[in-house]
Amino acid sequence: MRRDFFPGFIKLHILHHASKEAVYGLWLIEELAGHGYKLSPGTLYPMLHKLEQECLLKSYSENHQGKIRKYYKITPKGHRSLEEAKVKLQILFREIME
Ligand SMILES: [Zn+2]
């Protein structure tokens, strides 16, 4: 499958999970691998940073078993972008799956 389709799918996937609960890098790598996306930390972390720069995600750090872990949660702007994308996805899905 063309890899240039992936970044958009992956970003929407990250926003979807971050809209349910706070997510972190390692969990996302395993979650995305479960859907067939093989992402290295070197690919995922810049994507998370960019989503935060675009104010779609907000991060916070927390001590987890003696280690500082960076969590990401969706922002109100992120929610709006996700809802807009879901409408477009539904139209696309309906058309291409006909
Ligand atoms: Zn998922």
In short:
Helix content is 60%, strand content 18%. By secondary structure, it is of the alpha+beta class.
Write the layout of secondary structure elements.
Elements: H1 6-20, E1 23-24, H2 25-34, H3 41-53, E2 57-64, E3 67-74, H4 76-96
Antiparallel strand pairs: 1-3, 2-3
The structure holds zinc ion.
Query: What is the succession of H and E elements?
Result: HEHHEEH
Give the ligands present.
zinc ion
Q: What's the average pLDDT?
A: 94
Largest sheet: 3 strands, antiparallel
The CATH topology turns out to be Arc Repressor Mutant, subunit A
- Pick out the low-confidence regions: none
Report on the architecture of this protein.
With 98 residues, the chain is of the alpha+beta class. It has helices spanning 6-20, 25-34, 41-53, 76-96; strands at residues 23-24, 57-64, 67-74. The protein has one domain (3-96): Winged helix-like DNA-binding domain superfamily/Winged helix DNA-binding domain (Arc Repressor Mutant, subunit A, Orthogonal Bundle). A three-stranded antiparallel beta sheet has the order 1-3-2. It binds zinc ion (ZN). Zinc ion (ZN) binds next to helix 1.
Task: List the main descriptive attributes of the protein structure presented here.
98 residues, alpha+beta, Arc Repressor Mutant, subunit A, three-stranded antiparallel beta sheet, 3 strands, 18% strand, binds zinc ion
